[in-house]
Amino acid sequence: MRAIRSVIRRQYARLVDQAGQQTEGLTVPSEGWIATLRKALGMSAPTLARRMEITKAAIYQAERMERDGGVTLDRMDRIAQAMGGRFVYAIVPNESVDQMMQAQARNKAEAIVKRAGAQMALEKQALTPEQMEEEIARIAGELVRELPRDFWEMP
Known about the structure:
It is a single chain. By secondary structure, this protein is an all-alpha fold. The chain has 2 domains: 1-23 and 92-155, no CATH class; 27-89, lambda repressor-like DNA-binding domains (434 Repressor (Amino-terminal Domain), Orthogonal Bundle). Helices cover 67% and strands 0% of the residues. The chain contains 7 helices and no strands. Helix 3 (45-52) packs across helix 4 and helix 6 packs across helix 7 (129-146). The longest helix has 26 residues, at 97-122. The model has no long low-confidence stretch (mean pLDDT 91).
């Protein structure tokens, strides 16, 4: 069962990583996508409004709401279609899913080793820096393989 979950998780990770690569360098224009595409097409707001069977005020409102971050995904999709485009929505990580998982596992492992190291130091059994690094790497590897329920909780 764990092997199946691991395969499924890796498939999701590939999808997310591919989306991140496809949107590399893509930024939202200062006027927003609605106004930018509309103007690139040479389409007036009244024309777009007629195509959508809404008022031109609704178009200007949607453009303003997009800039302010308040436009709905459904509205963006309908406007994109009315202009002959398609609306694409994605959440892409700043680094690969694997890098994010490795970093989290390392953070958790460091916290675990530091807690254990403090106790061991009290008992005069402190680990050397090399031993601590080996333990951190070992525990981080286990955490990535096992993915405990609290994996994303901060220690």
